[in-house]
Amino acid sequence: MRYGDVAAFICDARNxxxxxxxxxxVPATSVRAAARxxxxxxxxxxxxxxxxxxxSQGSTMVMAIANLAMITGNxxxxxxxxxxxxxxxxxxxxxxxxxxxHELPGYRHVSDPAVRALFSTQWGVPIEPEPGLRIPNMFxxxxxxxxxxxxxxxxxxxxxxxxxxxxxxxxxxxxxxxVQDLFIxxxxxxxxxxxxxxxxxxxxxxxxxxxxxxxRVRKVMPPLAGLADWExxxxxxxxxxxxxxxxxxxxxxxxxxxxxxxxxxVSYDKIDRLGSIQWPCNDKAPEGTQVMHVGEFVRGKGRFVxxxxxxxxxxxSRAYPLLLTTGRILSQYNVGAQTRRTKNVVWHGEDRIDIHxxxxxxxxxxxxxxxAVKSRAGETALRAVLTERIQPxxxxxxxxxPESGANVVTTENSDWATNCPEYKVTAVQLVKVSAxxxxxxxxxxxxxxxxxxxxxxx
Length: 458
Known about the structure:
By secondary structure, the protein is of the alpha/beta class. 31% of the residues lie in helices and 16% in strands. Helix 2 packs across helix 3 (28-39) and helix 8 packs across helix 10.
């Protein structure tokens, strides 16, 4: 897109800080001051987290951030750039290796016949030219009968994904669910087969962080279950008739280097010698690339994208006048499958609902009261915490404890490009109650039934 088009978009009165103040609640003077501070900083770096991406227009916002970095020249040298703060230690590595259903490793689209031919030759199977399904699409397809099996490794979709009741209906509809994990998590309660997983202390491999840095992971003890995660997958594949011939994770990295242009120079020996490697690592950069986009982008001079403001479909109403946003807390990791089994529960033993004192007073809620949290998707009950840390009209909770049912109330709304759930915007109402929700009662009964099916200790 031409610079002039971008300039016209920026200068349009509809996109001015004054016009946007009514939407964002941020005064125009503060926006202009921040813009001048960033543009005049010399080196300006942008760091963003899930508060940006967990919206229906999260991808649009990331594009706007990229526009801002390009137009101010804050790319291609140390101390600048657009830097996502990842939620876990290998999110970048998973994306690099083709975890998206429309891409093969190295961010190459499945519609490219040359790319498909490369992988088909190596793997001995045809690669479909059409993208696969993202997780929300899998659930919808399971309910219509066209998606019948799922292999879940190290993720607890029954707790972490939005609109829990929709998710569990989909899990019940499938014919075969395999869960591989360290613990019997919420998803495992719906599994037909459970494979024990291995912890980071029990495996060899690599993690790739947000700065593209590939670092080795070395096991310090043999897996308690006898096999590392990758070995379980290899044995399953072999049993199903597709032969995998890996004897060590280094062989998997060698295959990655063979098939992925940005990894052609990566090997375990080189990582051990250098300590870590930032991709791209190839003939042009045999020891990796510390700074990306020096001089130009892969596509040349870059591409500006017009990012019109599009409001979420989730709106408050008389029935649902408050906006719920969800997140995590330092002492519990992700959905808490690991950390809530530790003494970390001393700091965070339950999920609670934070509410501003003004909103609480209007509803007759006092600190510590049980309140029903109702949305268009469902209802749960949490204990209230009165706090001025949040704004009036907004409530907040975490989702580390499955019995809280925080994601029972979040909706199926998701980002238009990635399907990342819109966890940050759910219209709700809070009402003081004296008993758990109907969902929580069903959850307790179901959990007790599942525990009764487990083998008893000798």
